[in-house]
Design goal:
The protein is α+β, with helices and mostly antiparallel strands. Helix 2 crosses helix 9. The strands form 8 sheets. A 7-stranded mixed β-sheet has the order 3-12-13-19-16-15-14, with helices on both faces. A 5-stranded mixed β-sheet has the order 23-22-24-25-26, sandwiched between helices. It has a 3-stranded antiparallel β-sheet with strand order 4-11-10. The structure holds adenosine-5'-triphosphate. Adenosine-5'-triphosphate (ATP) binds next to strand 13, strand 16, strand 19 and helix 9. The site of adenosine-5'-triphosphate (ATP) has 16 residues, from strand 13, strand 16, strand 19 and helix 9.
Length: 501
C-alpha cells in the first residue's frame, strides 16, 4: 500500500460521493455535525440495495430465520443487564496542551514516554472511562430545567413553571410551551425512571423479544432472528468518512442453537458471510477473517472472527461474527425474572439456547463497496481523443441505477417517445434513469461515474429508418467493457433482470 496514493484515492472518493449525490455531511449548512452523514439520491439506492440483498439472503431465502424491527429507544434495564451501562466504554485521555480528547490506544508511546499524537505534548491526563452510549430522557421533561421538579401533578397541584396558565391539550400548545402530563408523578430532569438510551447495537432488542419471537414463529432450534436498523455510539473520534460514525446502521443476525453446536455454527456463519461479500463484488483476496485472540475477546465469547477489508486507509473491520454462548439470554432472564428458556419437544428438556451473531455495519459495507468499485481508466472522448474515465464498477446487484435510457437526440420526437416507452417498460422491474441532455458520450460518462452497469440508446435504427431488420432494437452498452450489443426491445426485460438480480 502506498499511503500517499491511497489517501489521494480516498480524497477522490469523498469528493465524488458529494458531487454525485452519494453522501453529504449532515447539517452541512450549519458547519456539519461530526460523526453524522446524510445519504443523497444515489447513495440511498446503494444502501437500500445492500440492505435488501442482505435481507433476501438471510431472511427470505432461508427457512430458519425470521425478521424483526425493534425500537431505538431502549429501557435502561435492558442495557444494564447486557453490561453496556457498566462496561461499554473506551478509555480516554485528554491532552492538557492542545485540549485534544483521544482514545488511549491513539497515544504515541515514544520510548516509554506518552505523547499526544496531535501536538506532541506530554502533559496528558490519566485514562478515564467514557461511556459510548447516548442517554436521553423520555416523557414530559423540560430540558431547560435541571434537577427541579418541573411539572405539577394537576393544574391545582405543585407549582408549575412560572408564566401564564398551562395548556391542557396538545393542540393548544405552541413551540416552547412547557408540556404537562395529565396525571402521574412529578417528573424531575434527574429522575432515573425517565432515562432511556439510544441503542448501541440492534442485538439487544432481539434477545429481549426472544420469547415472543419464538412463540409466534414456532421455530425449532437452530433458528435465527434478523434485524437491520440504526445504532448510536458516541465515538470519541469519528473518522475515515462514514467508516466510524456516531449514528450508523447494522445488519445483525442472532442465530440460536444448542450449546454443543456453537463452534460449528460459528464457522458456518463466518463462511456464509465471506460468500455474501463476494456476491456483492468484494473479492476474496481483499477480505480477511481474523480469528480474534483470547485476550481481545469478550469474556463470554467462546470464539470470534472479525471480517476485515483492505480499505485505502488500511485493513479494518467490516463485521464481527461472534459465538456469544448463552450470555445475553441468561443475563436478561436473570434481570427480568422472565423465563427465556427453550423447550425441546423431543428430549423434554428446558434450556437457554446459545447464540452465534454475525453483526455487519451497513455504512462500512457501503464504503467498502464504493472503495472497491472506484477505478479510473482511459476512454475516447467525442473526438476520439483518449481521456481519463472515472468508473464505479459496482456489482449490478448493488448498483444504484440499473439501467439508463437515452434517445440519441433530444430534438427528435420519435426517438424521445420510444425512449420513454422503454423507461415505462423497465420501470416495474428495476430502477432506471432517463437522460436526454448532452452528447451521448457525456451521458455514458455520467452513468459510469455513478456505476450504472447498463445504458440503452434509442437511435434511428430503432425506428427502422436505416435497416428494417433492426426496427424495435436498441443498443445495450456495458459499463465495464464499453461494448455495445444490439438487442430487441422485447428481450430487454429478460436480459436486464437476469443480469441485475
Ligand atoms: P470497532 O472495533 O471498529 O469499533 P466494534 O468491534 O465495536 O467495531 P461491533 O460492536 O462488533 O463493532 O459492531 C458490529 C459492526 O457494527 C462492526 O463490525 C461495524 O461494521 C459496525 N459498527 C460498529 N461501530 C460503528 C461505528 N461507529 N460506525 C460505523 N459502523 C460501526
Amino acid at each position: 500500500m502506498n499511503p500517499k496514493t491511497d489517501s489521494q484515492r480516498m480524497d477522490k472518493i469523498v469528493s465524488l460521493c458529494k458531487r454525485r449525490g452519494f453522501i453529504f455531511q449532515s447539517s452541512e449548512i450549519y458547519g456539519g455535525l461530526n460523526g453524522a452523514w446524510d445519504y443523497g439520491p444515489i447513495g440511498v439506492e446503494l444502501k437500500r440495495n445492500l440492505k435488501n440483498y442482505w435481507w433476501r439472503v438471510i431472511v427470505h431465502e432461508r427457512e430458519d430465520v425470521v425478521g424483526m424491527d425493534g425500537a431505538i429507544l431502549t429501557h435502561p434495564e435492558v442495557l444494564k443487564a447486557s453490561g453496556h451501562v457498566e462496561g461499554f466504554s473506551d478509555p480516554m485521555i485528554d491532552c492538557r496542551v492542545c485540549k485534544a480528547r483521544l482514545r488511549a490506544d491513539q497515544i504515541i508511546n515514544n520510548k516509554g514516554e506518552k505523547q499526544c499524537p496531535v501536538c506532541g505534548g506530554k502533559d496528558l491526563t490519566e485514562p478515564r472511562a467514557f461511556n459510548l452510549m447516548f442517554k436521553t430522557r423520555v416523557g414530559p421533561v423540560d430540558p431547560r430545567s435541571s434537577g427541579t421538579a418541573i411539572f405539577p401533578v394537576s393544574p391545582q397541584g405543585a407549582t408549575g413553571p412560572a408564566g401564564p396558565s398551562q395548556p391542557t391539550h396538545p393542540s393548544t400548545m405552541t413551540a416552547g410551551t412547557p408540556i404537562m402530563p395529565a396525571s402521574g408523578p412529578v417528573v424531575s430532569a434527574d429522575d432515573e425512571t425517565a432515562i432511556a438510551y439510544l441503542r448501541p447495537e440492534t442485538a439487544q432488542s432481539i434477545f429481549v423479544q426472544f420469547k415472543n419471537m419464538l412463540d409466534v414463529s414456532r421455530k425449532k432450534l437452530p433458528f435465527g432472528i434478523a434485524q437491520i436498523g440504526k445504532a448510536f455510539r458516541n465515538e470519541i473520534n469519528p473518522r475515515n468518512f462514514i467508516f466510524r460514525s456516531r449514528e450508523f446502521e447494522q445488519m445483525e443476525l442472532e442465530y440460536f442453537c444448542r450449546a454443543e453446536e456453537g463452534m460449528q455454527w460459528l464457522d458456518y456463519w463466518k463462511e456464509e458471510r465471506l460468500k455474501f461479500y463476494e456476491n456483492i463484488g468484494i473479492p476474496r483476496a481483499k477480505l480477511h477473517a481474523r480469528k480474534v485472540p483470547d485476550e481481545e475477546r469478550a469474556f463470554y465469547s467462546k470464539g470470534t472472527y472479525d471480517i476485515e477489508y483492505d480499505f485505502p486507509f488500511g485493513r479494518q473491520e467490516l463485521e464481527g461474527v461472534a459465538y456469544r454462548t448463552d450470555y445475553d439470554l441468561s443475563q436478561h432472564q436473570k434481570a427480568s425474572g422472565k423465563s427465556l428458556e427453550y423447550f425441546d419437544e423431543e428430549t423434554k428438556q428446558r434450556f437457554v439456547p446459545h447464540v452465534v451473531e454475525p453483526s455487519a455495519g451497513v455504512d462500512r459495507t457501503v464504503l467498502a463497496l464504493i472503495c472497491e468499485a472506484y477505478s479510473e481508466d482511459e476512454a475516447p472522448d467525442e473526438k476520439g481523443k483518449m481521456e481519463t474515465r472515472v468508473v464505479l464498477r459496482f456489482h449490478p446487484r448493488v448498483a444504484p441505477i440499473k439501467c439508463a435510457v437515452f434517445p440519441l437526440l433530444k430534438n427528435k420526437e420519435l426517438l424521445v417517445a420510444k425512449a420513454k416507452e422503454i423507461v415505462d417498460l423497465l420501470r416495474p422491474h428495476m430502477f432506471v434513469f432517463y437522460d436526454e441532455a448532452g452528447a451521448i458520450g457525456r451521458r455514458y460518462r455520467r452513468q459510469d461515474e455513478i456505476g450504472t452497469p447498463f445504458c440503452v440508446t434509442v437511435d434511428f435504427e430503432t425506428l427502422g429508418e436505416k435497416n428494417p431488420a433492426l426496427r424495435q432494437t436498441v443498443t445495450l452498452r456495458d459499463r465495464d467493457s464499453m461494448q455495445q450489443e444490439r438487442v430487441a426491445i422485447s428481450e430487454l426485460v429478460n436480459i436486464l433482470t437476469s443480469r441485475v438480480r
